[in-house]
TrEMBL record:
InterPro entries for this protein: DUF4124 (IPR025392)
Keywords: Signal
Domain of life: Bacteria
Keyword Signal attached: yes
Biased composition (Basic and acidic residues): 74-85
Region span, Disordered: 54-85
Organism of origin: Hydrocarboniphaga daqingensis
Pfam families: DUF4124
Protein name according to UniProt: DUF4124 domain-containing protein
Amino acid sequence: MSLRGVYRVPIALWLGVLASAGASTVHATTVYRWTDDRGRVHYGDARTPGARAVEVKPGSGAAPVPTDPVQTARSEECERRKSQLETYRRATSVVETDALGQRREYDPQQKAKLLEIGAQQVRIACGEGATEGGS
């Protein structure tokens, strides 16, 4: 059979075969637990003398739980804005350096305005009422 014949099989059929093969592989794995001579507990997929099968619940492993990438990005932006605002709040002074290396220190009124803008950015990124500690 030539490779040309392989490509004639509908792609949906191949995807279905691959998905069912992957699903059966995940559910068919047996994990065994045993204790060695020193009292250390071991886990493995090979049955050894004294080992017993253990139930492994889906989602209990180290694999990350799939998340919504948009929600993850929003959450990260929210945390970044909160952290930035908290840094400004704790700072005794705020100094800005531009691309040319020119430094400018904010006076108390400018710092208050910066905090107000930062709190507004937190509310936008995290949702209304999300600023912690007030502004």
